[in-house]
Specification:
Cyclin A, domain 1, disordered N terminus, 496 residues, globular, alpha/beta, five-stranded mixed sheet, two-stranded parallel sheet
């Protein structure tokens, strides 16, 4: 039996939805519950008496056979919440997704609301709170612009859907963040768990500072600590940047020239970053970082990594859409605070991956090797096709690891992606490998039809321009599932 599993994390209820399909259309349903701390899940079969009559109830043998297969696959594994398997009578099961566009919700507010529709084609199984499973219409074949098993956006067909009443659950979720952030001492483990699935936009600046260790979890010390670090950055600017060029060493001048060339190229399709004030901020941040980190110095790509921090910390002072922000209207004091926060948070991020940017960039080469091995384990046909065509993973994945996928997706999705990155903490480099594998295998069918030259062009210009949170959440969900599976079976992925 060939099994196909998809997993989706649903923020409110810490719920995992797993849809199972098999080539012989055998069906099974079970529900299980595990704690958010990762305790082993307990699976409970759903009896035939709980199954809605749909004219085809003779599934006992197939039920038991498939259930045993799934139990064997998931044995000993932990998921942060409840697991649900659903079946449908068709031969193909579509992937679960949260059906809302970016225009219908803010970054990080990816919550599921109740939808009352139901049908005999699905078995609805003891699901907490707002989650419900409903049938979807058969969709036409996906184009290369769609992630696997995602219906075209124009149809509006989804398995899990945000209803107009979703604000109630949004409020509950936001209340959890407020409760954590208002504590005298923030529980960083709980905050990471909440942030993994997205952070509300207005709370993101504080959450990111806490997750990176820039702001202390103790609220009484936070304001003083931030003020001290911001003043320290101002001193660094005066000491290293504001001095005359005649007082700078030749290698420092070379670094400054390289940065001044790269800054105008940063996120070229977003006009906001072309503002002179932003260009100047970015140049100072990158130059100070390079001078204070001589082991690596400035490397192309680090300029991209500063951009999410600029946007997030500016959002504390700006209103409306990012494209409409006029940063020149900010007071010098506020702009200095934003710039300092960007610098220190960028430094915290890079401390965990600094060997990505030292000579020969060994950290990136190591992760590319892991990616190649992981893809071979997950999707051997794709791995063999890439190898037969003579395409090296380093040729396309180097940029992914160097810029942390920033250049591969619409910039408006980057902050949501980074919520998960920062929530991973010290485990972020390993998770990045799974995220890149999930990203690549979004186009598994298309890749196997391309020759070397076509693959190179395709991977350099991936069809992600119209992506919304739906596609990004699918990438992160698959990465999470694979990481859980391989963490419990290390012998299957020996990449160290």
């Amino acid at each position: 039996m060939v099994l196909k599993l998809w997993i989706s994390r649903v923020q409110h209820q810490k719920t995992c939805i797993i849809l199972l399909s098999s080539l012989n259309t055998s069906t099974s349903v079970f529900s299980s519950r595990g704690s958010a701390k990762g305790l082993p899940i307990e699976m409970k079969p759903i009896t035939n008496n709980e199954i809605k009559k749909d004219g085809n109830l003779s599934i006992d043998s197939r039920f038991n056979q498939t259930l045993k297969s799934v139990q064997g696959l998931l044995s000993g594994k932990s998921f942060p919440g409840r697991v649900l398997l659903s079946r449908r009578t068709e031969t193909r099961v579509e992937s679960s997704q949260v059906g809302s566009t970016a225009a219908e919700r803010s970054d990080g507010d990816n919550d599921v609301a109740t939808d009352s529709s139901d049908s005999g084609n699905y078995i609805k199984v003891e699901v907490p709170g707002p989650v419900t499973v409903e049938p979807s219409q058969e969709r036409p074949n996906s184009s290369v612009n769609q992630a696997p098993d995602l219906p075209p956006r124009s149809t509006g067909s989804t398995i899990l859907r945000l209803s107009s009443g979703g604000r109630a659950t949004d409020s509950a979720r936001i209340a959890k963040f407020r409760k954590e952030l208002s504590a005298p001492v923030v529980d960083l483990d709980s905050l990471r768990e909440l942030a993994w699935s997205g952070v509300p936009s207005d709370m993101r600046p504080l959450v990111w500072r806490l997750l990176l260790g820039y702001a202390p979890p103790n609220s009484d010390r936070r304001e003083v600590a931030l003020m001290r670090k911001r003043l320290e950055y101002v001193d660094c600017v005066a000491q290293y940047y504001d001095i005359s060029n005649t007082d700078k060493a030749e290698d420092e001048l070379h670094t400054l020239r390289q940065i001044s060339v790269d800054c105008p190229r940063t996120v070229p399709d977003v006009a906001f970053f072309h503002q002179p004030v932003i260009q100047a901020c970015l140049e100072r941040i990158l130059y100070i970082w390079a001078i204070r980190h001589p082991a690596s110095g400035y490397v192309q790509g680090i300029n991209d990594l500063a951009t999410p921090f600029l946007v997030v910390f500016l959002s504390e002072y700006m209103e409306g859409e990012m494209e409409d922000w006029l940063v020149s209207k900010l007071t010098p004091a506020k702009l200095s605070n934003v710039e300092a926060d960007c610098y220190w948070c960028l430094s915290k991020l890079l401390d965990n991956i600094q060997d990505h940017y030292t000579f020969a960039q060994p950290g990136i080469q190591r992760l590319v090797f892991k990616l190649k091995e992981l893809v071979r384990r997950i999707d051997e046909p794709v791995a063999k096709h890439i190898e037969r065509q003579g395409l090296e993973f380093l040729q396309f994945a180097f940029r992914w690891f160097n810029c942390l996928l920033i250049r591969e997706i619409p910039f408006l999705l980057v902050t949501r992606l980074w919520d998960t990155y920062l929530a991973e903490g010290d485990k972020f480099p390993d998770f990045l490998v799974y995220a890149c594998a999930s990203f690549l295998l979004t186009w598994t069918e298309q890749l196997q039809k391309l020759d070397f030259q076509e693959m190179v062009l395709f991977l350099q210009h991936l069809p992600t321009r119209r992506w919304t949170h739906q596609e990004l959440e699918m990438v992160l969900s698959r990465a999470f599932m694979w990481r859980v599976m391989f963490d419990r079976a290390p012998s299957h992925l020996n990449c160290n």
